[in-house]
Design brief:
By secondary structure, the protein is α+β, with helices and mostly antiparallel strands. The protein has nine helices and four strands.
Length: about 250
């Protein structure tokens, strides 16, 4: 019974719910297709390996085992996005960004679990610019590691190709519309229950039973004016006994 009552509450304001969902989905669709600038993504891959023996480098960090190398990657991930590294990238490539904060907002660093692979990912308004930025950050970081860590164990595994044609990764209009549909549906249901809670008028037998605590013995159906006219016309066409006949008695 409770589920049926909830469904009746939603059904009463089904038109309102449909309106909220339609307006939300259309608005998000228009915004996603026409107002959000497309974003492209490019990646450069680095591998963190054993250090090189060199007379000018001091191997102060023991990275002989893979486990220690994987732990070192956590430090490298922080160094890549540090202000010092971003400023150095801008000094060598001033066309990539105006400030290190702007460049830092475009760069993200990730690593596969239990591997020695680091991936530098850049998101920008064109794939060519994103690829050039990812390659610049990777090469500058590789050159800076010996100076910072006194160990040369970072190698460029793969660079992004600026000439490669790739589609945008954002926005995703279909996903945005789907999320808008779900949120609008939840909001419309919530509004329906709120309006029903604030509405104290009596609408049906269930409201009477809940308000008075007494069972409903009978109910009078609602008649339309057209129903009254139809019934009246049918009644006038029905012959009645005792009318329309003449009886004569001879004495």
């Amino acid at each position: 019974m409770e589920l049926k009552r909830y469904w009746n509450i939603i059904k009463r304001r089904l038109l309102l719910s449909a309106l909220i969902i339609s307006v939300s989905c259309i608005a998000i669709g228009i915004y996603s297709f026409n107002f959000i600038e497309p974003q492209y993504e490019a990646s450069a891959t680095l591998i963190v390996n054993d250090y090189k023996d060199s007379s000018t480098l001091l191997p102060s960090i023991d990275v002989g085992s893979i486990s220690s190398t994987i732990g070192l990657i956590k430090t490298y991930k922080q160094i890549v996005t540090s202000p010092r590294m971003m400023k150095k990238v801008i000094e060598e490539h001033p066309d990539l960004a105006r400030t290190y904060t702007e460049l830092r907002s475009k760069v993200s660093v990730s690593s596969a679990i239990e591997t020695q692979i680091m991936t530098i990912t850049v998101r920008d308004d064109s794939y060519e610019k994103a690829a050039n930025t990812a390659n610049a950050v990777a090469t500058v970081f590789q050159k800076s590691v010996p100076e910072l860590m006194k160990v040369d164990n970072v190698f460029v595994l793969d660079l992004a190709d600026p000439n490669e044609m790739r589609g945008p990764v954002a926005p995703n209009p279909i996903m945005n519309i789907a999320v808008a549909f779900i949120l609008a549906l939840m909001a419309s249901v919530g509004i329906s229950f709120l309006l029903d809670y604030l509405d104290e008028t009596i609408k049906n037998e269930e409201d009477v039973e809940m308000l008075l605590g007494l069972p409903v013995l009978t109910s009078i159906p609602k008649f339309k004016e057209s129903d009254t006219i139809d019934r009246g016309s049918k009644a006038s066409l029905t012959p009645r006994a005792g009318r329309g006949s003449n009886v004569s008695l001879d004495t």
